[in-house]
UniProtKB/TrEMBL annotation:
Pfam families: PIN_12 (PF16289). InterPro entries: DUF4935 (IPR032557). This is DUF4935 domain-containing protein. Residues 6-184 form the DUF4935 domain. It comes from the Bacteria.
Amino acid sequence: MPRIHLFIDTNVLLNFYHFADDSLEQLEQLADMISETGICLHLPQQVINELARNREAKLKAANDQFIKESLPSAVPRHMQQYAQCSEYVAAIEQAKKLRSQLVSLALADASNETLASDGLIRAVFDRATKYPEDENVFSTALQRMQKGNPPGKNGSIGDQYNWETLLKEVPEGDLHIVSKDGDYASLLNKSRPHPSLESEWGHKKAGHLHIYSEVRTFLKKYNEMLAQVPPAPNVLQQPIEVAAAPPAAQQQAQVEPPAVEVQHQPLNQEEAVEEVDPEKEEAMQMLVESESFATTHAAISRLGYFRMNLRRSDAERLIRAAVDNAQIRWIATDSDVYAFFVSLLTEHSDIDADLFEEAVDVFGLRPEPGDPFDD
């Protein structure tokens, strides 16, 4: 399996000091997977600096929110006659004491940088590939910000600086980005990269961008990919016996019998179309049984020639493969894969409703209310 190149935005790391959906166990799992043959985490100095600058503010915000959470101790009059009422009031008082103790303990460890989050983030950083400050890269990032080019927000250069560092340092191929605030993602579909960044990466690095909002989402797909790696070939297999070629005289004497044309009456019009276009079936089978990213991309390219001839049953078969085959699902947001399957969904919207819903989730097409990046 090729090495996976990963970048984690500072906002994701800071969430380990707040109310993150990611767990500390997932951060520990990530640290274990960073190796010379597994995941390569690219770590610009800018990320290290941003984490150091914002760590305490994030901790304080989490503490303040935790303290302000309401613990209702008032009991309605009609419930006060029950024995459980006094137990409930006592439990609330105990919870308040425990909360106060938790805050105090966390403040002590936070001051000494001995929180569990601190240790795990250090472990991740120790295994990462680090890039020092670079004035030339910073100058390029400054120009990028002044032009208003993504990623990043107005008046902030951090994301542009990180992006320019990645463009310089990461080798050609795919890049996986975990970012919480959506600076690297499409506004229309947050599971896909920003179209401008995707185009730039493809042009300069000949690869695809993959976007995730949480470490756990990345790890889930990475583990799916590991599960799809075929076993090493068995070198102890018996050699295949090859029959010796007949003498030249016999070769000349051997004449193949004339081919017998089998008359077959197609059962319906769809079968007739299938008979005159066997290459379509071969391309579909290639995608359905894909066991690698390269095969998936090649099959998508071949199927582009037949897209207008795909029937509803063909579309259902291919979309089912996108849902079930991890080799397709893993790269569902790659531009060619995404464009092909989204076209299938729009052109064959009458496919099985349950399958349609499954595909909507795979390709991130489920609309979200309000700002898609409000957390």
